[in-house]
Amino acid sequence: MDQFNLEIISPEKSFLTKSDTEEVVIPAIEGYMGILKDHIPLISFLKPGIIDVRSKDETLNYYVDDGIVEFKDNTLSILTSNIFDLKEMDKNKVDKIVKDAEEGLKKENIKDHERYILDQKIEVLNSIKSN
Amino acid sequence: MPSLDDLRKRITSVKSTQKITKAMKMVAAAKLRKAQENAEKGRPYSEKMNNIILNLSAGVSDTQSAPKLLVGTGKEDVHLCVVLTSDRGLCGGFNSNIIKKAKNYFEKIQKEGKSLKIITVGSKGHDQLKRQYGKSIIENISFKESKNINYFDAAKVGNLIIEKFQNEEFDFCTIFFNKFKNVISQIPQAQQIIPLENENKDKDEKLESNYEFEPDEDEILSNLLPKNISTQIFKAMLENSASEQGSRMTAMDNATRNAGDLVDKLTIQYNRSRQAAITKELIEIISGAESL
After folding, report:
1. Chain A residues touching B52 at Cβ < 8 A
2. What are the pLDDT tens digits along chain B (292 aa)?
3. Which of A9, A39, B15, B262 is most buried when burial is the number of CB atoms within 10 A of its CB?
4. Which residues of B touch A28 (CB under 8 A)?
5. Could you tell me which chain B residue has the CA closest to the CA of A17?
6. What's the predicted TM-score (pTM) here?
7. Could you give the 3-state DSSP secondary structure of residue B190?
8. Secondary structure string (H, E, C) spanning chain A
9. How far apart are CA B150 and CA B169, in angstroms?
10. Count of A–B CB contacts within 8 Å?
11. Cα distance from B215 to chain A (closest Cα, Å)?
12. Which of A43, A70, A71, A82 to probe the B interface (max B CBs under 10 A)?
């Protein structure tokens, strides 16, 4: 399969750079989106979910809270301030984030948009836990 | 003429001061390396962010409906200045350079009859500004507790600014910080973040605008711009911390060298007076013997 470049950047550092990615599935705000080589230029947002990076010999999975995605000239850039490797997510960590999110949901003056994001977050995290 | 005892005491005290400045210099050097590394690692994020916004704003043609964070409120009455300084002293001209730059700007604004609001980040800046501009300071933030500079602290400042902007408390926002050039030179900078100033305006690059947007352009922009503010502040904080360590290192290096010079001078003085005392005693003995 054709390969393209992937860079995941967090404010603190370059989180990951790969040049042999074959397919990336991202949790875009309007639904999961698979990206292959020669995708048209794209800018989108992420909602809480799992990024699935597939290359020839490995598959990487990351959990993200939010982020911005740009695809241009066969380079996929993901800017995010909150990203964790799924392998390093243990139960306690997941529980803590879920608890925070649930607390956020309890607030009274919460907007619909925020509620949607938090609901998504809890759903994704619970699915991680059950795996 | 100080007595021998006094001189001896002074030499010891200068020597122990020298030890402290030397230790501080070495600590600063170690921290500098880390801060510099962090500043470099943080660059791709803010550059990428800038690029995306540039690409997006190129597509915005209608300034009426464009987000206010990008084009401004249309008024020019209230200026908000965010002054980023350090929490610790003993770093040479680091803080006073930022303050000087900021004060110049404040004067300019006040001369034009516009009102001024100040947010200080870091306690040193607050200390230096509160006497003259105490009334204009609306917020004083300090991150003394956080060991490292992290994005969440920057986001806190960013959110505060955005909140105030949405409440229409100001029209313009400028941040002041030191840009790290190298160890011996840090340049105080003023950067306007609201409305967004296009740094690469002169470059007539042809920007591709045939992006696919999801959701639509406006929504992305209005989501991205607040994030960009936090990012810019984070970048400024990183630059600032590298500059602070660099500035401290040079200052402490100078202090150590000056202490060394002082010790040399005092030692010579000490030896001279000791010799003078001996000679005086000898003369007294000889003249005493002669008179017998």
Report:
1. 43, 68, 70, 79
2. 788 999 999 999 999 999 999 999 999 999 999 999 888 888 888 888 888 887 777 766 666 667 777 777 778 888 999 999 998 888 888 999 999 999 999 999 989 888 899 999 988 989 989 988 888 899 888 888 777 788 888 888 999 998 998 888 888 899 999 988 888 888 998 988 888 776 554 444 555 557 788 777 777 888 888 888 888 899 899 999 999 999 999 999 999 999 999 999 999 999 999 999 999 999 999 999 998 8
3. A9
4. 214
5. B44
6. 0.84
7. strand
8. CCCEEEEEECCCCEEEEEEEEEEEEEEECCEEEEECCCCCCEEEEECCEEEEEEECCCEEEEEECCEEEEEECCEEEEECCCEEEHHHCCHHHHHHHHHHHHHHHHCCCCCHHHHHHHHHHHHHHHHHHHC
9. 27
10. 70
11. 7
12. A43
Domains belonging to chain B, first-starting first, are 4-21+252-290 (1.10.287.80), 27-248 (3.40.1380.10)
Catalytic positions of B are: 91
Amino acid at B270: Y
**Tokens 């170690």, located at residue:** B30
